[in-house]
UniProtKB/TrEMBL annotation:
Protein's organism: Oceanobacillus indicireducens
SUPFAM superfamilies xref list: PilZ domain-like (SSF141371)
A GO molecular-function annotation: cyclic-di-GMP binding
Protein name in UniProt: Pilus assembly protein PilZ
This protein's record includes keyword Nucleotide-binding: yes
Gene designation per UniProt: ypfA
Keyword Transmembrane in record: no
Every Type III secretion system flagellar brake protein YcgR PilZN domain range: 7-94
Residue ranges occupied by any PilZ domain in the UniProt entry: 103-209
Upper taxonomic lineage: Bacteria, Bacillati, Bacillota, Bacilli, Bacillales
Keywords linked to the UniProt accession: Bacterial flagellum, c-di-GMP, Nucleotide-binding
Amino acid sequence: MKGPMIKIGTKLGLTFKEPGLQADEYYCKVVDINDNYLLIDYPVHKQTGKTKFFQIGASFKVDFVGDDEAVYQFQTTLADRVKMNVPALALCKPEPEDIERIQRRQFVRVDATIDVAIHRQNEEAFTTVTSDISGGGLSLIVPREDLLDIHEVINVWLVLSFSSGKYHYIQTAGQVVFLQLRNGIHTASIKFLGLKPTDQQLVISYCFEKQREMRKKELS
């Protein structure tokens, strides 16, 4: 089986979980590759923006976006610290068969009310809120029926608010793939186009955080 290509410059999302604690998510970039290892810059926490000291042997779940824009995952461990032009970490390089492709339909979609601004070509922008979001797109409330057309390409601006108090602003192109009228409310489904891998990982992290919050409420 031929696996997706991880190249120098590929952005990785790392999930690290210490026993008895919640999983933490980090992002980093591949700075070099050899036969046995992926060399990465020091991972930065997605919410705090801080780096962390990891013990040799620490285990990570890694995700990245391939050239085909699908999301891939694999498990790895920290093998060593390496001195380069910048300090780097050596992760054990996965075998191609150990890299799992996560289908688009497997993106977690959560109900979420997020402030969003929509910019149309040669038209006035308008603001609204989402009704749900996933790593592949979002649904939003359309203030007026005539504000969007099916298959129209738009610019989407949104702000993700994490429980840590951090805010992340995301801008991407999107395409209107579905328009619906339900209970007197017009909604539109938007597919992200060309969403940057780091931004996509932030959206996915946001969705998982919201999913965890909903599960906690259900259990309480």
